[in-house]
Structures are given as structure tokens and as C-alpha cells.
Amino acid sequence: MAISATEKPLSRVFMSDYRFTIPSFQRAYTWQAENILQLVCDLQDASASANTPYFLGSLILVRNGDCKYQVIDGQQRLISLSIIIAVLRELETDPVLLEELDELILEPGNKLRGITAEPRLRLRDRDAEFFRSYVQEGDLEGLFDLREGDFETRAQYNISTNARQVFDELAKLDDDDRHRFASYLVNQVTLVIVTTDDLAGAHRIFDVMNMRGVPLTASDVFKAKVVAAMSPAARNVYAARWDDIMDPIGDDSQTLKEFFTDLHLIVSHKAVCTQLLEEFRADVLMPYVREQNVISFVDELLAPYAMAWRILDHPTDSLLPAAIVRQLVLLNDYPTGDWKPVAMWALVHSIGNLAGAGVKVFTDNARNDATKSDGTGKDREPLRLHDETRLRAILSALERVTGVDALNRQSSLARRTRAASAVRYLDRGYTMPQNRGFLITDDERRSALAHLRGELQTNARMNRLLLIRANEQLAGIRITRPRSLNAVPIIPKHVAKDSPFAAWPESVRDFWTDRIGNLVLTQAHEDQLKSLQTFEERRDRMLLSASSRRFPLTDRLGSIAECTPETLRGRQDETIRLIAEFWNIRYDEGNTDLSVLDEQQLARGSSSRTPNAKRVTIAQVLESGLLIAGETLVWERPRKGERWVATVTDDGRLRLEDGNEYSSPTAAARAVGGASAGLSVWKRTSDGCKLSEIWKTYRMQKR
After folding, report:
1. Who contacts 28 (Cβ-Cβ below 8 Å, separation ≥6)?
2. Which helix (H) or strand (E) holds 144?
3. CB atoms inside a 10 Å sphere around CB 507
4. Strands of 661-662's sheet in order across
5. Between 20 and 30 A from 674 (CA), which of 120, 586, 591, 660?
6. Residue 674 gets which letter from DSSP?
7. Distance between CA atoms of 245 and 247, rounded to whole angstroms?
8. Strand pairing partners for 688?
């Protein structure tokens, strides 16, 4: 079994020497939005140091002929990298760079060398054509136009969702920053390519690389450096003390990396830490080493912040006042942890002697409580707050900016930059109004409410969070949450022909599908509602549990006999107003009530010109003037001898020759030919322009 291993940048991976195929026995593409966004954010952070390579792990390949390889390990990264490059290509306007990006995904072919033109990566058969058509061949407009019912596999849904998320993230960058990111991605991101001729051997390599040995964690490395800098008499004592401090956090290397990265931000006020081991040593440890005072590092920095981290993980187990616990619970709702450094700072500077001997931090039945007993048999003192009012103010402001940034889909770099700014001003003693880390501009208010009023581009966890905020604002109190709590739609995702909702115009159903007015908090799971097609059946199932009825917006469903579009509009308006009040973003500096403005009014009032991956409707393109009512579109299928004609109506629909009207190009295409890529097949008869090109022009006008 011949084995070779070489480290190569992506520019040498996505090239003619490699044709990657995902074998049918491999699992599907499973990366979620948070996985690919974390990769993008990590690469953005790393690209700040343009000459520092970023190692992305290894690919294990089986050679299957000249330049052809089966991927045994690494398909998730290869697919995700292809999505990122496809989005960069979509956003690019320079024809030279566009061609170079295109060649990273699609092999242009070379007759002299006997190389055929085809994608550099082929997925499993079930998803290969989908990935090729929408991602590799560049039909992202068609991809963004698909709805959940258009996907045949979960992998296709993940591909679509991740492409949307990456588009929104990279569209925020200006041309120079995006070019810098692309150059870094191609030249400095490296992979180790491990190849063999033997499939069984490749699996053995995979087992060895992934299952043998336990690498040192960041905690292990820093412990060794700190203990080595102590006097011999103190080493054993403080080696044990380090373990007592860090063991309750756990031994997961990623968790420990996050803790020390956050501690680095708190001390250095630097948002980016691409080389943790080196930067933490230089920025945090070395001042203590130079002053021969590493014991103070352990006692006065590591211990209290490790305890603060544990409190953030289990706030309801702590002995903090109920109001503080509630604020920490709200922060823990968020899927990202970029708020943690500020919360840790606030706890350490608000609680007297947080990690001191004899201080009781957690309740007696709390998990992982290393502070229950000190062996003296004496009761431990409860937590003392220096200034509870200030702590509450900091946590409230932190939750507010975290929510607004989440709605505005700010990058990890932007969120951590805000956190570093907040800690810097807190360290300087600035008052809350003076702290720019907690500042929300009118543009940010408008953008957040525009995202809230339009089609939600958030995940299930964020939808749940938004509804919790609205319900608790309406109730005026913290609502005890049941173990299972979901945000489910009032309108079925798949409306049957005999459903009362089928009588609604398709455009109306389409409008409300992904809006917050159509969502309800309930213990019922979406799977339990799938077969229920009437409002009454769905309402009664949502209200079946008494725990669901704790939430006032859910409980009000009981007084609604019939659901109409006006019902959803009323719920939408009230929910948006409640969330705007919760985060104090309802009014701008001119005292305009932003919560009553529609999506277009909010967008017009904002200076932001960032394109995003939201679905574009025919009505929006009509309003922009890129389409004109009365224009005709054609879909020609010469092999089948078919020619379909559609007319654009005044109200933003497509009317086929049989008189039936459809709210989207995809729906019209499906009605006549079964294809879902509606934007790719319809062409304007006046100039032969594809709708996908018109849709892209509209999207990019937001720049």
C-alpha cells in the first residue's frame, strides 16, 4: 500500500491534478449554517494576517485512475469550500477574477492534455446534479428561489441554506476586503493531501489519524508555562490549584480554546486571536512572567474568570439574584457565544471575591460544583454584588446589542469587535451611555426591523428566541419554559388540495410562509402538525399543553375561530412591536415609530446597501423597473418539442396561456414541466435575458 502526504494550498487542490468524487457509501452533506459560518468567520479573522497560513486539516483520498480520487475523509470541507468560492464568484464583477474563481470549481478542460470539462468535485449521485446545476455552474439565483418543498434530500436543503448564509456574510464586505479574503482563501488556506491506492488502507489511515493519541489542550500548554515560571516550592500546589480551577469547565479542547480566547479578548481588548497559543502567551501571560508574579495570574485572573464562565454555562444553578439569572438565561438563548467576554467581565467586576475560599457560588444540588465544601464544616457566604444595578444595566445592554446583531446577521468578527470595544470602555470607567460597544445606530435599528418584518432569514433557534422575547414583553414577566418549546407555523408547510388554506391565493400563502406573524410558540413539534390541514386542528394541537398556554401570544389563538391573512397581519404587527420594545429599538433619534413601517420603507431609510440572499419576488422586480407588466417570457424545450409562454401581470404574477397565474417563476415552471429551476428556464422574449440574470441585477442594486 503506497501512501503519500503533501501539504498544499487550495490553489493547488482545486486544479486539474485532482478530480474528487464522493463515494455512494459516504454520508450526505451534513454541515449546518453555524458550521460554515464559523469557517467563514475564522477565515475572515485569519486573513487579517495575510502571510499566516491557515491549516484546514487533511483529505484522505483513494486514487482511482489518472487525477481521479475518491474522498474518504474531507467531503464536508470540500463541499463547503466550493460553496464559499461559488458565492465569491457570484459577488465578483471583475471579469478576470470571476474567471479565476470559476476555474477553481469547474475544470475548463484541455484537449491537448486530454482533460474533459467538468466540475472538480462530484457529490453522491442523489445530490450531484443539484450541486452541479445550482452551485458549481453558478445558478445561485435559482437556488435562492427554492422553497423547502423543492429539496429532494436533506443535503440539498443544507447546501441551499449554507449558500444563503455565506452570501449574506460575504456580501457585507467591500470589494477590497472581499478580494483580500479570496486571495487568502486560495493562497494561505492549506490541506494535507493523504493518498493511497487501497480503499481498506485509506480507512485504516482514517482510523489512525482520528482515533489515536490525545493532543494537548490550550489549558495543558498554558499550565505548563505558568507552573514552570513558579518557584519549586509553589509548583505542586499551583499545579493542583490549576486543575481544581479548570477541571469543572471540562476537557473538551474546543470549549477550552473558546474560554482562553475570550480571556485573551478581555485582557488585550483585541477582537481577533488567530494563533491562540502564541498570542495568549505574549499578550496575557508574559506580563506576569516578567514581573515574576504568575501566582497572581492564577489567583486573580484565571480563577475568577473560570468561575464566571461556569456561571454563564449554568446560571440557574447559581446563587445570583433572580433578575440577574433571568438576564443570563436570555443571553444563553443565542446560538453564538460572542457576548461571553463582556458578561464574564461584568460578573468578575460585580461579585466580591468570586473565586475566593469560602465563597458559595452554586446551589447545593448544582452540577459540577467544586465549591460546595471546603472541609471546614462551616456555611459558605453567599455571593455579594458590589453594584447590582450596574450589573443589570450591562447585561441588559449586552443582550440588546446581541439581539440586534443577530437579526442583522453580523459576522463573528463584527460581534467580537463590539465585545472588545465594550470591555475596553468598561475598563476605562466609561458610563453606559458613553460606551460605544453598546451603541445601536438608527441604521442598525432600521435594518433589524426590516429583517424582522420581511421573510425571516433566521434558524429555528433564533425564531424561538424572537417569540420568547415578544411573549415575555407582553406578559411583563419571565415565563417558565417547558423542556420542549418550538416555533411552528400556523399555515402548513405543505398545503393539501382539500385544506381550507388551499383557497387562499398562492401569492398570499407564499407571502406569509416565512414571516414571524405565521409562527407560534408551543410544546407541539412540527412533526405532530404535519398531517393537520385545518386551522382548528392545528390551533387545538398547539394549545393542547397547559405549558404552551403560558405564552400569551399562543394562548390568544384560542379566541380565534378562523385564520385569515388579516389575522396573520395583526399577529405580525404586534409581535414586531413587542420585540422592538423589548430591545428599545422601536423609535429612531427623530422619534419615528419604526415598528409600523413596512420592509421597503425601512430599507429606504437606511444607508446600508448590502445585498442579501432573501428571495426576490416578481413584484419587487416590477417595482424596480427591471421587468414591465405585460412583458412575455418563454421557456423553449426543443428536444421535447415544447414552448411555454408566460405574461407578467400588473400584480406581480406570471399568467400562462391557459389563464392560470403563479406567484413565482418556479411555480409556473413546475406547473408546465415539473422543473424547479424556474429562474433559469424562463427568458424574456424581447432580449433573450434569463430571469436569473434579471434577478441578480436587482439583488446587486442594493450595493
Report:
1. 124, 126, 127, 153, 154, 155
2. helix 140-144
3. 18
4. 661-662, 654-656, 642-648, 632-637, 683-684
5. 120
6. -
7. 6
8. none
Instruction: Report the alpha-carbon distance of residue 417 to residue 400 in Å, rounded.
Output: 16
Distance CA 414, CA 411 (A): 5
Closest Cα partner for 106 from 120, 93, 96, 95?
120
E strand or H helix that includes residue 57? strand 54-63
Size of the chain, expressed as the number of residues it contains: 703
Strand positions, DSSP E, 459-550: 486-489, 519-522
Q: Rounded to whole angstroms, how far apart are CA atoms 84 and 79?
A: 9
3-class DSSP assignment, residue 699: helix
Distances (CA, A) of 626 to 532, 686, 693: 40, 13, 11
Q: Alpha-carbon distance 217 to 186, whole Å? A: 29
Rounded Cα distance between 305 and 226, Å, is 17
pLDDT of residue 373: 35
Rounded Cα distance between 184 and 167, Å, is 18
Is residue 218 within a helix (H) or strand (E), and if so which, with residue range? helix 218-228
The DSSP secondary-structure symbol of 374 reads -
Closest CA to 615 of 568, 663, 651, 662: 663
Contacts of 530 (CB under 8 A, 6+ apart): 492, 493, 494
Provide the pairing of β-strand 654-656 with 642-648: antiparallel
- For residue 489, give the C-alpha cell: 407555523
Taking the C-alpha atoms of residue 56 and residue 54, their distance in angstroms, rounded to an integer, is 6
Q: Are the C-beta atoms of residues 523 and 561 closer than 8 Å to each other?
A: no
- Nearest by Cα to 134 from 94, 185, 79, 183: 79
> What gap in Å lies between CA 661 and CA 250, rounded to an integer?
59
CA distance 148 to 151: 6
Q: Among candidates 457, 279, 266, 409, which has minimal Cα distance to 348?
A: 266
Q: Which amino acid is at 125?
A: D
Residue type, 531: S
The owner of cell 436570555 is: 330
Is 85 within 8 Å of 91 (Cβ atoms)?
Answer: no
Query: Model confidence over 406-437: pLDDT tens digits?
Result: 999 888 888 999 999 999 999 999 999 999 99
- Secondary structure class of 198 (helix, strand, coil): coil
Are 177 and 50 in contact by the 8 Å Cβ rule? The answer is no
pLDDT at 340: 98
**All three cell numbers of 206:** 482514517
* Sequence-ordered alpha helix ranges (H) in 216-339: 218-228, 232-246, 253-268, 276-280, 286-290, 294-296, 303-313, 322-332
pLDDT beneath 50, residues of the chain? 212, 367-380
Q: What CA–CA distance (Å, rounded) separates 314 from 320?
A: 11
Amino acid at 327: Q
> The C-alpha cell of 309 is what?
464562565
> Cell digits for 251?
476537557
Check: CB of residue 342 under 8 Å from CB of residue 334.
no
Cross-strand pairs, 281 = none
Distance CA 597, CA 340 (A): 33
Q: Establish how many alpha carbons lie within 13 A of residue 254's alpha carbon, considering only the half-sphere containing its beta carbon.
A: 2
For the chain, state the CA radius of gyration.
28
pTM as predicted: 0.77
Phi, psi (degrees; rounded to nearest 5) at 3: -125, 135
Q: Which tens digit of pLDDT belongs to each residue from 602-619? A: 877 666 667 788 888 888
What span, in angstroms and rounded, lies between the C-alpha atoms of 45 and 274? 7
